[in-house]
Specification:
Elements lengths: L7 E6 L4 H13 L5 E4 L8 H7 L3 H6 L1 E3 L2 H4 L5 E5 L13 H11 L5 E5 L8 H4 L4 E3 L12 H16 L15 H17 L9 H14 L3 H21 L3
Parallel strand pairs: 1-2, 1-5, 2-3, 4-5, 4-6
């Protein structure tokens, strides 16, 4: 392959079924992806049910890393794509799996990505999607729009494997995309400063913060650009403290 499948990991947030976790591991190995991350799993990924469903992908289960929260699971990723079947506020500009795969492949030379799947019963929360730069949805029939977890993973990884098998255009221009942990630190600083200066409504600050997240996600911030923004927030905070509130 022109690009390594190691550039893309699968993250399951609070998966309920051990069988589903095992089935996801099997699907991952079917398409050549080997890194599974679990966020507060509600079932054992090392028990008999998961192992039976994984078949020859038990090694993925044994290597799977478990995290306390999604932010930690994405801290070393440059790009995160959250899956959702729900539409509406804060769930706009959704990508189909083929489009998402092209996005990942275009960044894979310098960036590492994660595709995130939510609990089988509720899907990802809006707070989880805040940590992702893109939202991905699988178009399904209205009679039964919700897919089984492992089936959804299969669709997304199938498309990714097609893109990873051919030479991809490097859309990063050789620049280093920002890590998830550095992006979140910048957003936390931005939120605090914009609250200080009265730009955000303290009763609902996340409304505009999410708008900023979407704008920056479209841009695709590099590590250097994140540092520039952090310097900007520092300067705004310093000026506000020095001169007082207008």
């Amino acid at each position: 392959m022109s690009l390594s499948c190691d550039h893309l990991c699968v993250v399951l947030v609070e998966p309920k079924g051990a069988g589903n976790i095992g089935s996801v591991a099997r699907v991952m190995k079917n398409f050549g992806f080997g890194e599974l991350r679990l966020v507060q799993p509600r079932a054992s990924h090392l028990g008999a049910e998961a192992r039976n469903m994984a078949v020859s992908a038990v090694d993925l289960l044994e290597r799977a890393r478990v995290y306390e929260n999604l932010a930690l699971a994405l801290s070393d990723r440059n790009l995160a794509l959250g899956t959702t079947r729900r539409f509406g506020k804060y769930r706009e500009e959704l990508l189909y799996p083929a489009e998402a795969a092209k996005t990942v492949a275009g960044l894979a030379k310098t960036a590492k990505a994660a595709i995130v799947f939510g609990p089988e019963d509720t899907g990802l929360k809006t707070e989880d999607l805040d940590l992702c730069q893109y939202c991905v949805t699988i178009p399904t029939h209205a009679d039964l729009p919700s897919m089984n977890l492992a089936q959804a993973v299969a669709v997304c990884l199938y498309e990714a494997s097609l893109q990873f098998s051919v030479p991809a255009e490097d859309k990063t221009r050789g620049k280093r995309p920002a890590l998830g942990k550095n992006l979140e630190a910048m957003f936390a600083q931005m939120r605090q400063v914009l609250l200080e200066v009265g730009f955000l409504n303290p009763q609902n600050p996340e409304h505009l913060v999410r708008a900023f997240r979407r704008m920056f996600a479209r841009q695709g911030l590099t590590e250097h650009e994140v540092q520039i923004l952090r310097g900007l927030w520092d300067k705004i905070s310093w000026l506000h403290r020095g001169k007082g509130t207008p």
